[in-house]
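Page 37, continued from 36.
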């Protein structure tokens, strides 16, 4: 049974508006443009009360941390009291950050990046490395439910350290693992990259299933469109992924055994 995820009932919110200090080479703040700025959230919810959950995200500071001031956290706590489920897309964290977040997130989404080249040259975190990402993940995993994400092809389309991330997770045995795929965007150095081949992705996913046989695999919202998406989504269906976010219409049309979930897949 593969679940079709259409996250129309989750509102993505940016605590920094469209600003990100890092300006990662693959993104340049692109994904922030489709999020509701935190300062406009209250009026947004007054106009549309169909949302059941909220993704708390935003641009990171120069240390790779999502800047959550006390004032912002107070506003977010109100959402919790109103009954919204909260999924935090946190970057790197410290024990001090964790104390402030106690009892607030229902879920934490974390990008597990173990490629030092990507961290320093793509994410522009010059003074960070894979150990910082491992440490943050372990701290979060001790304190909250965590949905690890692995970005396939972040090294200009090459698949390399993704295998190392899988081996790291093998010791932790997460309940779920969400894969996303690098997507060429205009006005970035990734615009004309060669995407990971379907064969490379298949090898990675089969490796994952061997290493994490009890982990539910999800195909997340970020991935290229068109024929590439059709092929990737078909592969995920063939490999019995538990969920596919916004699947290619022709893939689901050919499947007779699907359910629908209308919030962020990390909350599934």
């Amino acid at each position: 049974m593969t679940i079709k995820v259409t996250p129309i009932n989750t509102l993505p919110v940016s605590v920094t508006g469209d600003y990100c200090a890092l300006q990662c080479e693959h993104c340049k703040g692109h994904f922030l443009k489709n999020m509701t700025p935190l300062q406009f959230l209250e009026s947004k919810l007054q106009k549309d009360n169909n949302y059941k959950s909220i993704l708390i995200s935003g641009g990171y500071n120069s240390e790779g941390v999502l800047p959550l001031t006390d004032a912002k956290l107070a506003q977010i706590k109100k959402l919790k009291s109103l009954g919204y489920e909260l999924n935090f897309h946190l970057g790197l964290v410290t024990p001090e950050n964790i104390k402030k977040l106690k009892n607030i997130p229902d879920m934490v989404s974390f990008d597990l990046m173990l490629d030092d080249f990507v961290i320093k040259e793509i994410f522009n975190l010059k003074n960070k490395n894979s150990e910082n990402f491992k440490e943050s993940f372990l701290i979060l995993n001790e304190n909250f439910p965590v949905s690890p994400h692995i970005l396939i092809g972040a090294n200009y389309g090459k698949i390399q350290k993704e295998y190392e991330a899988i081996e790291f997770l093998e010791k932790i045995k997460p309940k779920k693992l969400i894969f996303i795929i690098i997507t060429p965007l205009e006005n970035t150095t990734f615009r004309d990259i060669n995407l990971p081949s379907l064969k490379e992705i298949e090898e990675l996913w089969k490796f994952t299933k061997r290493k994490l046989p009890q982990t539910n695999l999800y195909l997340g919202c970020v991935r290229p469109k068109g024929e590439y998406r059709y092929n990737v989504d078909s592969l995920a269906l063939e490999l019995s992924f538990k969920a596919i976010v916004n699947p290619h219409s022709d893939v689901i049309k050919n499947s007779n055994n699907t359910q629908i979930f209308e919030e962020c897949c990390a909350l599934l």
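The mean pLDDT is 97. Flag for discussion at group meeting. The CA atoms of residues 261 and 268 lie 8 Å apart.
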